[in-house]
Amino acid sequence: MVNLAVLSWDDVLAPYVYVFYAAFLVSFLFTPVMRSIAAYYGIVDNPDSVRKLHKAPVAYLGGVAVFMGWVAGLAMSQIHIPSSEVGSPHLHMKLSIVVGATAIVLLGLWDDLKHIRPRIKIMGQIAAALLLLTQGVGANCLGPIFSPLDIRLQAAFGPAVHIPHTAVSLLSSLLVVCMVVGCSNATNLLDGLDGLCGGVTAVIAAGFLFLAVHMGTLELGTLDPVRVVLALALLGAVLGFVPYNFNPASIFMGDAGSMFLGYACATMIVLLAQEQAKWLLAAMVMFALPVLDTSLAFARRWVNRRPLFSADRHHFHHQMIARGFSVRKTVLISYGLAIGFCLLGALIAYMRTRYAVAFYLVIFGSIVVAAYKMGMVHEKSPEGNGVAAAVATPGASDADVPRAGVRDAKPVVSSPPVAGAPSDHAVAG
Predict the structure, then answer these.
(1) N or C end of the chain, less CB within 10 A?
(2) 145-174 pLDDT tens trace
């Protein structure tokens, strides 16, 4: 990190914008390549007229192209040497970030092809989080929260009373693990409609980029080029993939892609949290849509006395479809909500931390109450039923389901087919 005086947005962003170019171009060019490879080897998602409602087999492995774009962006940051007036002469990206991402993608590919158990997926995600901690990524992310409290304790009771550094490190490490596991599964659950997960993640990545650049422009602030580079690489890689994935999708990202996007977001969140508590709050608000969908899913299953890891068709996007919205409208509404959350997160960045906490609590309290009143905690389809009812009916045909582009299941390798494969592609359904 480099302590600097006031910098402009151009000063912070311009030296690293080539990262975006590399990530976008590689993702955009290799997505059709991965589509051809998937089609050649029969790695496709076949419709079944019950849960997989697209009209024809759709190629797979899009997540690999997104990962390749992200890696290309990071590689560009190592090749391109920015001006010494703005950042370090040579940016050193911690290897644990890339190794952890690779582990997540391989885990997702394994799940896509072999349908591994949820516990194995979670264990792999925990391992990826521990890899981050080996090089100190997020190892003190709760320090800015406990530091003011520690100062007040010592002022009130003397130097002997303080919060042990070991406790802060342990809690920070726990947060890193929770972030990686939670975010990876949140984006995995969100990947239920064509273009939904990719587009929402692109909005979130843009929000993270805003936070990273804005932090570098603050007076007496701290510029961390790693945060800027990670946000640019994620944004470019996702935007290169979304045109192929938007309804009607010609390729899916699968668990390899959706879990990777969550991992990348989790890494950004813990890196942002290392400065001040309000940056953690701002980042969490920007990531609110996947978190809320996942939280409601677990709350719904608990209220209805079902296993927490069971599958259902009552996620936010499913309920929008059941209320009569088309796939494209549902996806666009989700984009709008993601943009709204990012704007709220950006607003928090301009507040003092004490006000940001209050703002955060009011936002999420209001959303939880609204979701409950809208019936999103109860497994009841609205009148008119729509897709949710058709999906719940055994043997429903394409004629019963008027909309394509809805999916909530793993693709299978068409030759040979995987017998008895589970119907959901997410850990929590």
Answers:
(1) N
(2) 888 888 888 777 877 777 888 999 999 999
Supply angle C-alpha 397, 402, 407, rounded to 5.
Answer: 75
pTM of structure = 0.84
Q: Number of helices and strands (H, E) in the chain?
A: 16, 5
Longest dimension (CA), the chain: 74
At residue 251, the 3 state secondary structure works out as strand
Domain ranges of the chain: 2-413
Please report the pLDDT score of residue 56 as a whole number: 72
State the Cα–Cα distance between residues 288 and 339, nearest whole angstrom. Answer: 11
CA distance 208 to 374: 30
Angle between helices 165-190 and 143-157 (to 10 degrees): 150
Please give the Cα distance from 75 to 25 (Å, whole number): 13
Neighbour count for residue 353 (Cβ, 10 Å): 17
Residue with tokens 């997020």, as numbered in its chain: 138
Identify the burial level of 416 via C-beta atoms within 10 angstroms of its C-beta, where 0-12 means exposed, 13-18 middle and 19 or more buried: exposed
Lookup result for tokens 């510029």 = 223
Residue 222 pairs in a beta bridge with 3
- What confidence tens digit (pLDDT) does each residue in 215-262 have? 888 754 567 889 999 999 999 999 999 999 998 889 999 999 999 999
Retrieve residue 183's tokens.
């975010």
Provide the token pair at 266.
């989790």
User: What gap in Å lies between CA 282 and CA 207, rounded to an integer?
Assistant: 9
